[in-house]
Specification:
By secondary structure, the chain is an alpha/beta fold. 39% of the residues lie in helices and 20% in strands. The protein has helices spanning 19-29, 41-44, 51-60, 85-90, 108-120, 136-147, 160-171, 185-190, 233-240, 249-264, 270-281, and strands at residues 4-11, 33-40, 65-68, 82-83, 95-99, 102-106, 128-132, 152-156, 179-181, 194-197, 221-224, 244-246. The longest helix has 16 residues, at 249-264.
Amino acid sequence: MSASYCLGLVGAGIGGSLTPAMQEREGRAHGVALTYRRIDAEVRGFGVEDLPELIRWAHAFGFDGLNFTHPFKQAVLPLLDDISQAADDLGAVNTVQIRDGRLVGHNTDWSGWGRAFRSALPDAVTDHAVVVGAGGAGLAVAYALLDQGAAHVAIHDADAERAETAAIRLGKRFAAERITPVDDVATALTEAQGLVNATPIGMHGHAGLPVAPALVNPRLWVADVVYFPLETELIALARSRGCRVVPGGGMAVGQAVDAFELFTGRQADADRMARHFADLTS
């Protein structure tokens, strides 16, 4: 009898998520019955305070795992039996295994982005980089860069206090001198080889650039976490100036690859999942 898995994504406004399709198709490729459901807080009418009840029902209905996205990545933490080191470091969980009645939390945002970045620019893993945006995505990106060996990461946010808080959090896991909050992106980029946008700027409904156009220098590699659209204004500008670019689909695919492996114990085909993502977004 083939294995079967029941999975779900818990979040608000997740009708456009491509994770269900990616997970289910990868399951079919492995010859397993994998069902992946959206559990949308906006559609179902629940909030953070209802998470304990939701998890109780996930147990009752035999779910094998859940992904969590906004606004539940922090709220789910106290409900778990155990969490990975990275999830603890980041203070956020997006993947929860349900095994033998126990809930184990992981963060595959950072590992997924890191996987995609190393695949695209393997020679850049030790570079100095500037990350714009110190929210959940920015923390995950900075964590991935530092984990894979970045010499230094400068992190900037419109909210200077948030950038400082992010640097302090990451400095507890990595050498504090390797992560610095910065107010002046222009100066930080003169000492860096790469730029990552980890803000919503550039996605549909949030047009624009996260930095001044003049700062997108041909000597930089440029990455984005936004993938609706894949060709953001930043990526298009960087490409036109001859920069090496890493579009935002990498984090979306990478987190799904790592989550699939945690849920099923099977090695996902990252290239196949990336091709499926490309089909879904074409």
